[in-house]
């Protein structure tokens, strides 16, 4: 259910997951920037930044029930999977929590892209 309308009905679960994933990516990225091995994490940080933006945009497209919603969800799923694969190189607690959210978002976006 949308916040003030029923517009988001079929998208709401995916919208919520994309917003959660964007937040997780931003939080992880901010923590990574303070890690001692930040130079080793540059690719992970880059993926997290791109994924955060992709998730935000995907949620926006679904909120407006855009014509490209299902295609955008497929792109977002791909981005989340790529970010998860890169981030799995770092086994610390915050990164592994983020990886789990990335994988959950990819799964939810895949479901939406199949509709």
What form results from the Cα inertia axes? elongated
- At the first level of CATH, what is the class? Mainly Alpha
How many β-strands, per DSSP? 0
- From the N-terminal CA to the C-terminal CA, the straight-line distance is 17 Å
Overall description:
By secondary structure, the protein is mostly helical. The protein has one domain: Substrate Binding Domain Of Dnak, Chain:A, Domain 2, CATH 1.20.1270.360. Helix content is 72%, strand content 0%. The protein contains four helices and no strands. Helix 1 (12-32) runs antiparallel to helix 2, helix 1 (12-32) packs antiparallel against helix 4 and helix 2 packs antiparallel against helix 3 (69-87). The chain is elongated and about 45 Å long. The mean pLDDT is 94.
Keywords:
single chain, 115 residues, mainly alpha, Substrate Binding Domain Of Dnak, Chain:A, Domain 2, 72% helix, elongated
Concise structural overview:
The protein is an all-alpha fold and 115 residues long. The protein contains four helices and no strands.
Question: What's the helix and strand layout?
Answer:
Layout: H1 12-32, H2 42-63, H3 69-87, H4 93-113
Helix pairs in contact: 1-2, 1-4, 2-3, 3-4
